[in-house]
Amino acid sequence: MTFEEFAELDNEQKRAFYLSLEWHPFVISLLDETELNEGYPKADGLRRVGELLLGDIIDSKPTEVFPVNGNGLGRATVSYSITFRWWDGSERTYADVADVFNDGQSGNIDDNFIVFALATASTRAEGRALRKALKLKVCTAEEISDKIKVKVGGNVSVDDLITENQIKFMNTKCKRLNVDVMRLVNSNGERYDRIEKLTKKQASTIIEMLNSASRQESEIPQEVLGYQENWRS
After folding, report:
1. Same domain, 32 and 128
2. CA angle (78, 134, 140) in 5-degree steps
3. Beta bridge partners of 80
4. Does the pTM exceed 0.70?
5. Is the pLDDT reported for residue 148 higher than 60?
6. Is residue 52 in some structural domain?
7. C-alpha distances in angstroms, 195 versus 61, 91, 191, 222, 233?
8. Residue 84 exposed, middle or buried by CB count within 10 Å (0-12, 13-18, 19+)
9. Do 135 and 187 share a structural domain?
10. Residue that terminates a domain, selected from 96, 120, 143
11. What is the per-residue pLDDT across 15-53, written as a single tens digit (0 to 9) for each?
């Protein structure tokens, strides 16, 4: 379904589509490339699409704020609430909470953003509230940290394996650009038989290459052209 087709539906038809399995991919399809980070939607993109599909945002604000105390290490928590004037004229409110923490040894926020702990928590909480309103099944980009460090289970870094969301994003891009996914993956001499063996960092490099080609800033090599529908089977 296109946005134009959605706009022509009556309220009951919109509600039925909103509750259907087709809703999630429809919402994602309306996001611009600049509103995605490695396939994860950014909060600003969800804000735009939320108003486009659901109705005007008439209230959007933190409702509770618990800042980091002392020297900037510790936990900051924010509750966030968003109210839409729905397509049927009613008002609907969605809320969620998010926190960021860093104790110098473990944390869920990149080192460069520690000084913006409260703002980061607020954006994450807003993104979660928007995800609820839009019934999305993926995290927002702001909820994903490139350098998450946890005490339990060891360190997690950018060298972890590719995520399912990255794979789906690469597949969508390759299909649009008529690119053979595995030929592209192995175009630099690698010999991967399964995409799941790539790291997040390698996937990020490929995604950036695909985004550049989509913006017509670079060309896809001829030898990797020819999308294969069943490439992952």
Report:
1. yes
2. 50
3. 62, 96
4. no
5. no
6. yes
7. 41, 44, 10, 21, 11
8. buried
9. no
10. 143
11. 999 999 999 989 998 998 889 887 889 999 999 999 999
Amino acid letter, 64 = E
Token readout for 45 is: 């993109």
Q: What's the CA gap between 12 and 67, in Å, rounded?
A: 43
Residue 79 parent element (H or E)? strand 74-86
Q: Which of 84, 44, 76, 80 is nearest to 62 (CA)?
A: 80
Q: Which two tokens stand for residue 205?
A: 């490099």
Please report where in the chains the tokens 């950014």 appear, as a residue. 42
**What pLDDT, on a 0 to 100 scale, did the predictor assign at position 90?**
94
Query: Residue 200 corresponds to which amino acid?
Result: K
In this structure, the answer to whether residues 125 and 173 fall within a common structural domain is no
Q: Which residues contact 12 (CB under 8 A, 6 or more apart)?
A: none
Beta bridge partners of 93: 83
Determine the Cα–Cα distance for residues 149 and 104; give it in Å rounded to an integer: 10
Burial class (CB in 10 A: 0-12, 13-18, 19+), 233: exposed
Q: At 80, which amino acid appears? A: Y
Decide: helix, strand or coil at residue 233: coil
